[in-house]
């Protein structure tokens, strides 16, 4: 049985990893059943595990592959063939095995400079969907509580901008392309996958900590709580009642 917890940052569902993957697949299929929709995938080990699970279990319906437009919510400024590319992992792990049509794939234009890539991606979104970002934005959570490429002390946090996507240089980790607070505010729904004991303190800080999003970027999701669902395993949820 799912343990559901209502919090200041959205509903937490405590599930096994397999059940969280099944829930995400169910949401993707339900979204596609409504017609053409957009999905922003995430980088990291948990999404990669989801891709392998979804392919092995044939969890994504054929109609879903036709109706969903696939993006990533943040990206490293590297070629798609790089092992550091979020969209590259999505292609190799999910989109290629499932034979998703090329016209349904929307990687960031990483052949451009970071600032140019962000501007081009933003411009394309303005033409395609002026008022809404992703119908479903999938995020992970770092053990430092970062979401997308909004990292602790990121200058984009708290910045008032109309841009839904931007470039930022993460000290020691290079340039990143990422959804912004404005972009998150215009997503129809947000799902955050959180697995492992190493994420427990970060999740506790987001749910119970004093509001300091520059230190705990995941706290930004408190502003969008009604549309945020956290799919969390028991280890990651272990400190929530402490």
Question: Main beta sheet, described?
Answer: 7 strands, mixed
Do you know the CATH topology? Answer: Rossmann fold
Give the overall form: globular
Strands of the largest sheet, in order across it?
1-2-10-9-6-3-4
In CATH terms, what is the architecture?
Answer: 3-Layer(aba) Sandwich
Word description of this protein:
The strands form two sheets. A seven-stranded mixed sheet has the order 1-2-10-9-6-3-4. A three-stranded antiparallel sheet has the order 5-8-7. The protein is globular and about 45 Å long. The protein has one domain (about 5-230): 3-Layer(aba) Sandwich (Rossmann fold), CATH 3.40.50.1360. It has helices at about 15-35, 45-55, 60-65, 85-95, 115-130, 180-185, 200-210, and strands spanning about 5, 10-15, 35-40, 70, 75, 135-140, 165-170, 175-180, 190-195, 230. It is of the alpha/beta class. The mean pLDDT is about 95. Strand 7 and strand 8 form a beta hairpin. It is built from seven helices and ten strands. Helix 2 (about 45-55) packs parallel to helix 4. Helix content is about 30%, strand content about 20%.
């Amino acid at each position: 049985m799912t343990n559901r917890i209502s919090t200041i940052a959205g509903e937490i569902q405590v599930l096994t990893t397999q059940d969280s993957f099944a829930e995400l697949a169910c949401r993707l299929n339900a979204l596609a059943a409504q017609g053409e929709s957009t999905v922003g995938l995430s980088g990291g080990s948990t999404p990669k595990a989801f891709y392998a699970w979804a392919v092995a279990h044939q969890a994504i319906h054929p109609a879903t592959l036709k109706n969903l437009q696939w993006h990533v919510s943040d990206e490293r400024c590297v070629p798609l063939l790089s092992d550091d590319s979020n969209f590259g992992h999505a292609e190799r792990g999910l989109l290629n095995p499932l034979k998703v049509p090329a016209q349904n794939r929307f990687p960031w234009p990483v052949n451009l400079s970071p600032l140019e890539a962000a501007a081009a991606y933003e411009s394309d979104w303005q033409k395609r969907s002026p008022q809404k970002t992703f119908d479903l934005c999938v995020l992970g959570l770092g053990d430092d509580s970062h979401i997308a490429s909004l990292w602790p002390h990121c200058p984009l946090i708290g910045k008032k901008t109309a841009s839904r996507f931007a470039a930022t240089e993460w000290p020691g980790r290079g340039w990143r392309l990422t959804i912004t607070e404005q972009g998150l505010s215009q997503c129809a729904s947000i799902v955050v996958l959180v697995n492992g004991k190493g994420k427990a303190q970060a999740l506790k800080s987001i749910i119970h900590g004093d509001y300091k999003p520059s230190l705990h970027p995941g706290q930004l999701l408190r502003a969008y709580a009604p549309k945020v669902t956290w799919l969390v395993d028991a280890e990651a949820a272990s400190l929530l009642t402490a």
